[in-house]
Design a protein that fits this description.
Helix content: 25-40%
Strand content: 25-35%
Number of helices: 17
Radius of gyration: 36 Å
Number of strands: 23
Shape: globular
Oligomer: single chain
Strand order of the largest sheet: 1-3-4-2-5-6-7
Structural class: alpha+beta
Length: about 650
């Protein structure tokens, strides 16, 4: 199954920039090196000069280290290093050693006594802490604490350079008894050091609080464009993107020129979304193209699904992520009938979007300019589709019809001014209809779920996965689990579809997660990403209540199917026919039926070959829906009732 494509809008970027052949040239051809850097570049012909330069640099470094060690003696350097490791300031230790003529013990007692005095002045109870620190430090240097007897140091206090190797350990953090910041005394003229405020980490963000406080953001809505092949889906949406300013004039001119060379001049707008060579050569959409745009009242995430019969699995993958679907139908004589009659994809796409949970359907009656905006033809198409929508389960209030012209861009962004249309059509444009939609309610408070639609290696960021957040939210820096493999990873960063870096992503949004701590072979398309404390269920067998569509062969026990859920499909078998039910009230009509025929509602058991991730429909509407296909046709669809 082909993976999703993300259409990015590089406005103002010169595409000819990438035509220059810059690979294989030496850095010296374009960027001269400074003298300070050139001496470190390996030169086959200049070996002696390089060796001399490196030798001079090494001598300078050695001389600087020797000058630093001459400030105090070798033995005193050991004491200085020890005192510094225990958290005392270097300058304070050096001053104490100079004051007492490099007498380590007296200098050490002087530093400790000053520290104790300050502790008593500002804390009152610092004497005990100071005594503990003094004991620990004296024990480290093999010196008895002050007042416990003979305080004369032995020879072991000052090891010589010859018999004890000099080792400098990394500076340890100060003991907890010493404060990082001290209050100044009343007679001190030095201002108190103010600690820097601690920055809040992304994982500490109150996402729910932010969402509740937001009132000015445009609601997000996911829109899938479906319909029969050659109905003009890509042309319609590509022209809309041009009218919205998401495509530069240069890019559009390039598409027109190249499409005319291939004898497909009318495909210029379709190529805005159909970017691959195979799609442009064949003239059909293969992958699910994805892009994002703004309307006056909405933020729209667009999913352009393929309409060809061979790519229905890709269409299911795109429609499963949609909140609203735009059904594009061809209004020309013979065009509508080819898609709507038996064998066309208009019927199957409508059934699938309904089975996948889409509640609102916008019907764009396209190519109206070819029939001179004929009202009679428009009414005929509306009546035919309206009766079919009712039989599938759509209410009349959930379907909106609108006449458009994708090639001419009429009635897309603004209300049409064509007199032959305005004399009988009083509705708004396509953008007006989208702005009037009610955004769906999101499950922000549910456990986090993201179904992977694409896995790729970003050249700069590393392993990345794309998908839609079905429920909950994810914050950068959060550990995650990839199911059903149960592989663990960490979310290093999060980006949106239009390449904007964000700290979090919430339910309903399409996002890209850059992951760390996981191998690319451990994550695949169709996996579900969740948090470790709320893993999604995995199973090989489950029960589902399904609606059987128009089928030629009755469904019996052991019937093989292709099970589609979210973005993937798995081979499975209908292992049991449990019962048939009444469509209206759900009452059991027959237990253990021998077979299932068209338009029946039944409770069945499905057994998969591999473990899959599912949720009950009552807990997650997106992860609780399944579709059954056989022989290239959709035979049933329904919801998960029980996971065994």
């Amino acid at each position: 199954m082909s993976r999703h494509r993300i259409v990015r809008n590089y406005i103002g970027v010169d595409s000819e920039y990438y035509d220059d052949e810059v690979f294989g040239r030496s850095l010296e051809d374009d960027s001269p090196l400074s003298p300070s850097l050139s001496q470190f570049i390996y030169n086959r012909g200049g070996g002696p000069e390089l060796d001399a330069g490196l030798a001079r640099s090494s001598v300078d470094c050695v001389q600087e280290e020797e000058m630093e060690e001459e400030e105090v003696g070798v033995a005193d350097q050991e004491a200085l290093s020890t005192m510094y490791d225990m958290g005392f300031e270097m300058d304070l230790c050096k001053d104490a050693l100079r004051q007492y003529d490099n007498d380590v013990t007296r200098a050490l007692n002087h530093v400790l006594e000053n520290g104790a005095a300050q502790e008593q002045q500002h804390e009152g109870s610092g004497a005990a802490q100071h005594e503990q620190l003094a004991t620990a430090l004296h024990n480290r240097l093999h010196v008895k604490p002050k007042g416990s007897g003979d305080s004369t140091p032995t020879n072991s206090l000052t090891p010589s350079k010859s018999n004890t190797p000099k080792t400098r350990t990394p500076r340890a953090s100060p003991p907890s008894s010493r404060k990082q910041y001290r209050e100044p005394s009343s007679h001190s003229s030095t201002p108190a050091a103010t600690p820097k405020p601690k920055k809040s980490r992304p994982k500490d963000i109150d996402v729910l609080g932010i969402l509740n406080s937001k009132t000015d953001d445009k609601p997000l809505i996911n829109v899938a464009v479906v319909g029969h092949v050659d109905a003009g889906k890509s042309t319609l949406m590509g022209h809309l993107l041009c009218l919205l300013g998401h495509v530069t004039k240069k890019e559009l001119h390039k598409n027109k020129t190249e499409s005319q060379k291939l004898g497909k001049g009318s495909f210029a707008y379709a190529w805005v979304l159909d970017e691959t060579g195979e799609e442009r050569e064949r003239g059909v959409t293969i992958d699910v193209a994805q892009t994002k745009f703004q309307t006056p009242k909405k933020t729209v995430n667009l999913l352009d699904a393929p309409g060809h019969k061979d790519f229905v699995p890709n269409m299911i993958s795109g429609a499963s992520q949609a909140d609203v679907a735009i059904l594009v139908v061809d209004s020309t004589p013979g065009g509508f009938e080819a898609g709507f009659e038996q064998g066309g994809q208009t019927r199957e796409h409508v059934v699938l979007v309904r089975a996948l949970g889409v509640q609102t359907l916008i019907i764009a009656v396209n190519k109206m300019e070819n029939i001179s905006w004929d009202q009679e033809r428009y009414d005929h198409i509306s009546a035919e589709l309206g009766a079919f929508f009712k039989s599938v389960g759509f209410k009349s209030s959930e379907t909106i019809f609108i006449p458009v012209s994708g090639l001419e861009g009429d009635n897309l962004l603004e209300k049409s001014r064509t007199s032959s249309l305005t004399q009988w059509y009083t509705g708004g444009s396509l953008v007006d209809v989208i702005d009037g939609l009610e955004p769906p309610k999101r499950s922000y408070d549910r456990p986090f779920r993201l179904v992977v639609t694409d896995v790729f290696k970003h050249p700069q960021m590393g392993l990345s996965v794309a998908g839609k957040v079905d429920s909950g939210f994810i914050i950068m820096g959060t550990p995650i689990v990839v199911m059903p493999e149960a592989s663990t990873a960490m979310v290093k960063s999060i980006t949106t579809v239009d390449d904007k870096s964000v700290d979090y992503s919430v339910a309903g949004e399409q996002c890209i997660l850059i992951l760390g701590g996981i191998d690319q072979t451990k994550i695949h398309k169709g996996n579900v990403i969740c948090e470790p404390h709320s893993k999604v269920r995995t199973t090989l067998k489950f029960k589902a209540r399904v609606l059987v569509f128009n089928i030629d062969i009755p469904i019996t026990k052991g019937f093989p199917i292709d099970l589609h859920y979210q973005t993937v499909s798995e081979p499975a078998v209908i292992s049991r026919l449990i019962s048939t039910h009444n469509k209206s009230n759900g009452q059991v009509l027959k237990s253990k039926p021998r077979c299932l025929t068209k338009n029946q509602v039944a409770l069945i058991e499905i057994k998969c070959e591999r473990a899959i991730c599912l949720d009950l429909f009552k807990d997650s509407k997106s992860l609780g829906r399944v579709t059954c296909r056989y022989g290239g046709n959709t035979i049933a669809a329904g919801m998960v009732i029980e996971i065994t």
